[in-house]
Design a protein that fits this description.
The protein is of the alpha/beta class. It contains 21 helices and 14 strands. The protein has helices spanning 2-16, 41-50, 55-61, 66-77, 84-92, 94-104, 116-128, 134-139, 149-183, 252-260, 275-282, 294-315, 333-342, 348-355, 366-369, 402-406, 426-436, 468-474, 480-497, 510-516, 528-540; strands at 27-32, 35-40, 107-109, 113-114, 145-148, 203-212, 217-226, 235-241, 264-268, 321-331, 387-393, 413-418, 442-447, 523-527. The chain is globular and about 80 Å long.
Amino acid sequence: MFLWLLSLVLVTTSLVLVNFSAKAAEQIHFNYGLLKISVSLTALETYAETGKVEDDLKLYFLLIDAENQQKLRNVLQFNLNINPMQLAQGLYSPMGEKLLQYLGEMIQTQGRNNGAIALREALIKTAKSQDFTPINVLQNFPGEVQFNIRKILAVNREFSALLEDTEKLLKEVKQITLTAASTEEKIDFSTLPDLRQPGNISFYQETLTLNDKSRNRQFLINLYLPSNQTQTQTIPLIILSPGLAAKLSQWQHLAIHLASHGFAVAKIQHPGSDFNHFQAFLEGKETEIFQLREFINRPLDITYLLDELERRNKLQYQGKLNLKNVGMAGQSFGAYTTLALAGAKINFAQLKQDCLPQIKSLNPSLFLQCRALDLPQQNYDLRDKRINSVLIMDPVNSSIFGKSGLSHINIPILWVAGSEDQLTPVVIEQVYPFTWLPVKEKYFMLTKGAKHLDFNITEIQNVESVDDDSLNQLVSASSPVIKSYIDAFSLAFFRAYLENNSDYLDYLNSSYAVAISEEPYTLGFLSDLTVEKLIPALVKN
């Protein structure tokens, strides 16, 4: 998905830099209101190949400095090897069509009509030529192209404002964190257990195959259990739900960390939105990146898992699992799943406002969230009352739940976000929704430099087809420092609220974040008490 998404963005970016647009193989046109000006595509080709600026480019180059002129040339020279079948699969999917409609408002056809269909044709034709450059995409564009400069500039302003607001947010959260830490009770964390370190409890892993016949749905669970089950106390359970196109092996570090500290951990596979489904989609065996019913099936998978563990608990685990007070963690689409199980309700009114007639916000997660509008629009109650504390990382949530949908959550929550999240931007998709939560036991952890997905753009030119091996090239593992933050705060959170151990509340504060924070991934940490200080800054933005 990211290959074709990035290829589209590259084409758009090269044109945004100089604010013009194109006619296939001859002229590049741009519209600004009644104004329509042209430049030859040949001049762009010459500039990309030799660096020579011909006469009809000189006017445009007066508008941009030397640094951006070189950036433009670098983009024009960028060449990808893209599997045309996989690209076509993405562009013909419902999410791909939404993306094309969004870009088609900037890259229009003659008569200033949305250029989505023409753009798709140009991209696929260029991929088949095995010479995927922005110039070749322009050459393959059918008919005349009309670039809407007002729209391009508006998107550019929105993007710049988002970057500026993110920087303001980082500074504000840092200041609030430092101020709160200076007023909190002084604790020497060097004398306390280091929650970043693995525990000393041995555990074993088993894989369960569950079959929910009522939904004709079979899925796998990796279950981590303490090796010594002779203890008299029950074992608390934490469920991990991964994001879109994820493998069952993801979030292994968190599962092992929690298991080494005595928790039972269940990592779940969601078959309609996991990596196997994504591969089948790329091979043409599925028509969508994820099945529409995943908005409902994912939470139901967790409920079915808990029902099955209750049955097995009596027969297989000597009744040791505590299944009345369960913790849950999820990332991205898995965080949506977690919020739904915590009580959040799908908000179709908000989705209609944000998605129709088409997506307008610079928030990539909306391409996923807006798919929910094709569900039967009814009241879905996906809450499972056995889940009583939740940790969410980079959730997709702001439109599919909105303020109204999140208002139903009344259990403790730890919200984890990164400042460089490309897919669920922290200002739009994270910090505002966090302030909407009515629950008092809520915490917000913001890591400077952390990303939703650490996409290695330098490798994209070396990858022709998305598969298991190429994903390891394209997606880098998170920094060990960032992983250690998640390990530490998740352990403190679940000790405090799953095991009701109030000693661990000392870790859930700003002073602990300051104590373990390391450059360049500095930590900000807000509780319900300190988040009130953030709201005026958000209003000013």
